[in-house]
């Protein structure tokens, strides 16, 4: 193929030919197999270039986010091991505390919300314009300033409604005991993307637990799939409810 | 591949493509520990496992973005197989001793193998393409990079301080050069499909 051909290929792909030129070009494609094969490769190269550069920014964002998740995952794993070494001491301390509790207080057998309340840290990826508010919401949420975070989430959700943001908004509502609103959010998430289904169910159960509605709490827990990443917590809460 | 049934685990692929933190976190929680113990049991350590996992996930992101990834088997089997093969290949590179790749084919389903092959092919093709791209002159590289990032050729011309006509012609010729190399390269051809 010579230079002329490549210029033609590009003009054709960019839709810059007259009807006559187009017809002529397509005729040549049909008749000249070498021409057609070069054109196919030319298209493949275009596609490769689009993938290589068209998603450069997104790929960078993904890389960063991936590294963050990976680092958190692996450092958490290490931390758990350290804790488990000390667990024995805690166990002793805890049993002493419980003994004292049994002696001095009217010991309540039901699990309490606070024991199962471990909201995860929010880590939002930056997304253009609304990123300032998003960052503020992330900081407020992670600092457990839920009252502050709620209006920020509401503002973001008006322009950018993603399951991830809805989820953290729901958790903030739960923390502030705005049960009806939280329930509505998690019910919506429950029937949306499968990724958030079990997470949403777990939070719906926590809403019931916080209101001491143990029966409904248990019923919801029983619908959570065993594949749920934090199924340990589900099992533990179910045991305590029995 | 079109008519094979897409597995519900496709949500992991879509989550990766959308850079969804919750999806990435759940992949780490549910599927990564198995990879870590495999690497550690086979002369590796945690840091190595971490690298292997990241490389594979970036590869999946790229393949998903190119719209070429339709999961027809559980994510678990597919992901584990890819990580395992990647690690065994690393091992091969480090030690001169031959490492036998024991796939225990019976235990993993066939479509996982097929999909993993496709992903590896995608990766090879990408690497080959990258190598060719870097063989281009600096001017071509810069111009193509700008053309496919900015998209408006008028803006590209302005940025490079040349005329629109020149940029258009040069772009066609640079892509033409790559086209020629790829047509000459048998490896790429066999990977083309």
Automatic annotation (TrEMBL), chain A:
Q: What Pfam families would the database entry show?
A: TPR_6
Question: What keywords are annotated for this sequence in UniProt?
Answer: Membrane, Transmembrane, Transmembrane helix
Q: Which domain of life does the protein's organism represent? A: Bacteria
Recorded protein name is Tetratricopeptide repeat protein
Q: What is the lineage of its organism?
A: Bacteria, Pseudomonadati, Bacteroidota, Flavobacteriia, Flavobacteriales
Q: Which organism is it from?
A: Flavobacterium shii
Transmembrane ranges? 87-107
Kindly give the InterPro entries that the UniProt entry links to this protein: TPR-like_helical_dom_sf, TPR_rpt
Is Transmembrane helix among the key words of this record?
yes
UniProtKB/TrEMBL annotation, chain B:
Keyword GTP-binding found: no
Q: Give the UniProt family note.
A: Belongs to the sigma-70 factor family. ECF subfamily.
MF-aspect GO terms: sigma factor activity
Q: Which domain of life is it from?
A: Bacteria
The Gene Ontology biological process terms listed for this entry are: DNA-templated transcription initiation
Transmembrane domains' residue ranges? none
**Name used for this protein in its record:** Sigma-70 family RNA polymerase sigma factor
Q: Which UniProt keywords apply?
A: Sigma factor, Transcription, Transcription regulation
């Amino acid at each position: 193929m010579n230079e002329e051909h490549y210029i033609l290929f590009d003009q054709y792909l960019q839709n810059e030919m007259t009807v006559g030129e187009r017809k002529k070009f397509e005729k040549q494609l049909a008749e000249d197999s070498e021409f057609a094969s070069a054109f196919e490769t030319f298209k493949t190269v275009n596609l490769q270039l689009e993938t290589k550069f068209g998603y450069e920014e997104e790929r960078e964002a993904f890389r960063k986010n991936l590294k963050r998740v990976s680092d958190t995952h692996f450092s958490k794993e290490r931390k758990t091991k350290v804790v488990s070494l000390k667990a024995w001491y805690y166990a002793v301390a805890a049993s002493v505390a419980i003994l004292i509790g049994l002696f001095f207080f009217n010991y309540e057998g039901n699990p309490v919300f606070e024991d199962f309340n471990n909201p995860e840290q929010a880590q939002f990826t930056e997304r253009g314009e609304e990123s300032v508010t998003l960052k503020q919401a992330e900081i407020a949420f992670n600092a457990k300033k839920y009252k502050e975070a709620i209006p920020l989430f509401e503002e973001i959700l008006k322009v950018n409604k993603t399951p991830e943001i809805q989820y953290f908004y729901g958790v903030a509502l739960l923390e502030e005991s705005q049960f009806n609103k939280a329930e509505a959010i998690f019910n919506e998430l429950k029937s949306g993307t499968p990724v958030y289904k079990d997470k949403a169910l777990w939070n719906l159960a926590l809403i019931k637990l916080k209101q001491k509605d143990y029966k409904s709490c248990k019923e919801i827990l029983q619908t959570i799939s065993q594949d749920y990443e934090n199924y340990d917590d589900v099992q533990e809460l179910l045991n305590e409810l029995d | 591949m079109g008519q094979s049934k897409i597995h519900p685990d496709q949500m992991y692929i879509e989550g990766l493509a959308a850079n969804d933190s919750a999806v990435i976190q759940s992949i780490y929680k549910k599927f990564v520990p198995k990879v870590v113990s495999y690497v550690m049991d086979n002369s590796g350590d945690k840091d190595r496992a971490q690298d292997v996992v990241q490389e594979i996930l970036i590869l999946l992101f790229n393949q998903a973005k190119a719209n070429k990834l339709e999961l027809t088997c559980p994510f678990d089997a597919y992901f584990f197989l890819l990580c395992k093969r990647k690690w065994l290949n690393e091992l091969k590179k480090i030690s001169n001793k031959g490492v036998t790749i024991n796939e225990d084919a019976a235990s993993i389903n066939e479509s996982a193998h097929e999909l993993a092959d496709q992903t590896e092919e995608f990766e090879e093709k990408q690497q080959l393409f990258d190598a060719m791209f870097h063989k281009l002159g600096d001017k071509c590289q810069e111009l193509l990079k700008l053309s496919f990032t900015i998209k408006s050729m008028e803006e590209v011309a302005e940025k490079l301080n040349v005329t629109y006509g020149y940029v258009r012609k040069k772009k066609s010729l640079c892509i033409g050069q790559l086209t020629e190399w790829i047509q000459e390269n048998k490896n790429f051809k066999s990977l083309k499909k």
